[in-house]
Specification:
- By secondary structure, the chain is an all-alpha fold.
- The protein has one domain.
- Helices cover 89% and strands 0% of the residues.
- The radius of gyration is 21 Å and the shape is elongated.
- The two termini are 28 Å apart.
């Protein structure tokens, strides 16, 4: 009876969180198209992540565990919800009609580097915030307060978030290759463009490192 009651409460709490997610998505739909593109992914990602985490946390440690799980889920969800690829796509809109202009390409590369650094800051912050929460979950798993089957279900949802982060990385790598291709077609030197390409390479190495760290944390659940 206790187990059935706990599951019932868990379902009610998760349902409440998903209701909040619906409200958030509705509110972002009322914003301008530009604002929505910048915020929708982050809000929805964090909300859904919190819902997943809350369910996981409750299974692990009741009310306290739900809080920890929600924080973990929101952290991962918020990171992947920030649509870095969408930001880069907007840069392409600004580049239209000036694709062959070196100065325009340099400005474009500077903007993409700015977007990449911003995304890296988010990833780094999330890795740091997740570490103590993952450690707490590991401790609860060791005391066998949750079944492996239930934990695996939640892990699958978290892994999906990591997959999304990897997609953002691919988007950045595609931009780097496009810039390199453009550079190779130029007959004259362009130190500024070369510097931006080198900076993007370094920023993507950092992005890959943070994404790998997130995946490593997820594998510990």
């Amino acid at each position: 009876m206790k187990i059935a009651s706990a599951r019932h409460v868990c379902r009610r709490r998760v349902k409440a969180v998903f209701t909040l997610v619906v409200v958030v998505v509705f509110l972002t739909g009322c914003a301008t198209q530009g604002d929505q593109a910048r915020t929708e992914g982050t809000l929805a990602g964090a909300g859904i992540g919190a819902a997943v985490g809350a369910g996981l946390g409750y299974l692990i440690g009741g009310g306290q565990g739900a809080g920890i799980g929600a924080a973990v889920g929101a952290a991962v969800g918020g990171t992947s919800g920030y649509v870095y690829a969408d930001q880069v796509a907007k840069r392409h809109e600004m580049l239209k009609g000036k694709e062959q202009d070196v100065n325009a390409r340099i400005a474009f590369a500077e903007a993409v580097n700015s977007d990449t650094r911003q995304y890296n800051q988010r990833l780094q912050q999330q890795v740091a915030e997740l570490e103590p929460k993952i450690a707490s979950l590991e401790a609860r798993v060791k005391t066998q307060q949750v079944t492996r089957q239930e934990l695996d279900r939640q892990k699958q949802a978290l892994t999906q978030r990591i997959d999304d982060a990897n997609k953002q990385l691919v988007a950045g790598q595609n931009e780097l290759q496009e810039l390199k291709n453009f550079r190779a077609r130029q007959s004259s030197s362009s130190p500024k463009l070369d510097a931006q390409i080198s900076a993007l390479e370094a920023n993507l190495v950092e992005m890959r490192s943070h994404t790998t760290s997130l995946a490593s944390q997820s594998s510990r659940i």
